[in-house]
Amino acid sequence: MTRVAELKQRLREQAEFHLRLAAMDELRAxxxxxxxxxxxxxxxxxxxxxxxxxxxxxxxxxxxxxMRALGMTAxxxxxxxxxxxxxxxxxxxxxDGRPTVAPRQ
Length: 105
Fold this sequence. Notes:
Elements: H1 3-30, H2 45-57, H3 60-70
Helix pairs in contact: 1-2
């Protein structure tokens, strides 16, 4: 793995970790009787105080453009999204590997 790829991987892992912690904090605030505060390593102020709030304010289209520009998408490795019509729910693939489509009612 190249040095740049390692840096991207670490950046993504840190971002996902701190976004997950923020989501758990929100759940704990909503349902305080079911949880206790977790132990948190000291530090990581940038991630908690700057990154998470900023990430939540940036529109999804901007995030998607940034991920594509940095080459941090699954399409880069050959994955393509299954074709769907608008408002059609996702269905698991059929036996032949193609997505199944529910009949229109």
